[in-house]
C-alpha cells in the first residue's frame, strides 16, 4: 500500500505560515484526524490533522520551516507498524534531601521560548505572573490553554478573598526585568503593522451612536423567533451608508480610486487563544438584515471550527472591528488589507447618561451608547467624506424603523 502525503492546507489565514511544532513523533501510530503538527501565521495557530490512520514514517518540514500552501509536510504509512518503545534505564534511587531547594519559577524569557504555549497563553501567563508548570493543562497532550490560565487566576483570587483555613497567602515575586524575546508571530505582526501605516496615511474620526432603536427592533425580532446579533445591524447600516460616500468602499490605485462593484464586508472574529480571522459577508448591499444575520452566524460558527475556505476570508472591500465585545470602549483599528480604504471600529455598548431635548427642554436620560470610529486611508478619502459616511451610519443606527 502506498504512503499517504500530509500537505499544508491550501487555505490559511495570514501572510506566511511556519511549522510551530510536531505533535506526533516519527514511528508513532496515529488515527485519522489526530493532530499531527501545528502551523503558525501572524494571525492564527492551526493544527493539521492526520488524513488517514497509520504510522508517521517521514517528516519533511521540521520546526521553524516555512510552510507554503500545498507543501509536503510528512508521510503516513497506513500499513506500517509502530516503533516499539525503548525501555528507559532505571534511575538510581536516592533519598530526597529535606532541605532541597524548590525549583525556580519560570521566567518571562523561558515562557516566551516554550513551544507548547500559544502566544495568547504566554501573554496571559506573563501578565498574571504565573508559572505554567504549576497549572494543570486541559488541552491536547496536557497543553495549557487560555481557559486554564483564567481558571488559575480565578482560583488564586477566590483563595485570597475567602481566606480558607488551608489557603496559603500568595507570594508576590519580585519584578522580573528580563527581556522578552520576539517570537515569530510578534515579528510578523510588527512587519504587517509597519507596512500598513507606511503605505497608507491613517486618519480616524470618532462619533457616538445611540443603539436604543436597534435594541428595540432586536427584541421585537426575537419575540417573533428571529435572533439577530448587534453585528448584523452594524453590517447592514454600514452597507446602506456607502451611498453617502462611495469611496469608502474603494481602494487606492496608482492611476485612480477604484470603487468596488459590490459591498463585501469583513467582520473580525476572535478565535480565543488562536488569534483572529476576518470572514467576509458578500454583497451586503443586496442582502436583507435577516440574510446578513444568517450569513454571519454561519461564517462565525465555521470560523471557530476551523472550517472556513480561503475564499471566505479574502477579497473584502470594507472591514468592521467590533472590538467592544471584549470590553474596549474606544479603539482606532489599522487598515491591514491593502485593497481597502477604511475600517469601522465599534466600542463596547453600555448604558450612559446623555442629554436629550424633550418638549423643548434639555433632560438627562439613560441610553445604550457606543463609540464608533472610522479609520480611513487619507489618499482615498478626505475628512468631509469620512464625517458624511459616519453621520449617515449613525443616523441609520439611531433611526432604525420600529416593527410596530
Task: Describe the SSE topology.
Blueprint: E1 4-7, E2 18-22, E3 29-30, E4 35-40, E5 45-49, E6 54-59, E7 72-77, H1 108-113, H2 119-127, H3 146-162, H4 184-199, E8 202-210, H5 212-223, H6 230-241, E9 250-252, E10 257-259, E11 265-267, E12 269-270, E13 276-277, E14 280-281, H7 289-304, E15 318-321, E16 342-346, E17 350-358, E18 361-377, H8 383-398
Parallel strand pairs: 11-15, 15-16
Antiparallel strand pairs: 1-7, 2-4, 3-6, 4-5, 6-7, 8-18, 9-10, 11-14, 12-13, 16-18, 17-18
Fold and architecture overview:
With 404 residues, the protein is of the alpha+beta class. It has three domains: 4-77, RNA polymerase II/Efflux pump adaptor protein, barrel-sandwich hybrid domain (OB fold (Dihydrolipoamide Acetyltransferase, E2P), Beta Barrel); 110-162, Dihydrolipoamide Transferase (Irregular), CATH 4.10.320; 200-398, Chloramphenicol acetyltransferase-like domain (Chloramphenicol Acetyltransferase). It has eight helices and 18 strands. It has helices at 108-113, 119-127, 146-162, 184-199, 212-223, 230-241, 289-304, 383-398; strands at residues 4-7, 18-22, 29-30, 35-40, 45-49, 54-59, 72-77, 202-210, 250-252, 257-259, 265-267, 269-270, 276-277, 280-281, 318-321, 342-346, 350-358, 361-377. The strands form five sheets. Strands 8, 11, 14, 15, 16, 17 and 18 form a seven-stranded mixed β-sheet that branches. A four-stranded antiparallel β-sheet has the order 1-7-6-3, with no helix packed on it. Strands 2-4-5 form a three-stranded antiparallel β-sheet, with no helix packed on it. Strand 12 and strand 13 (276-277) form a beta hairpin. Helix 6 (230-241) crosses helix 7 and helix 6 crosses helix 8. The radius of gyration is 26 Å and the shape is globular. The termini are far apart. Mean pLDDT is 82; it is low at 94-105 and 157-168.
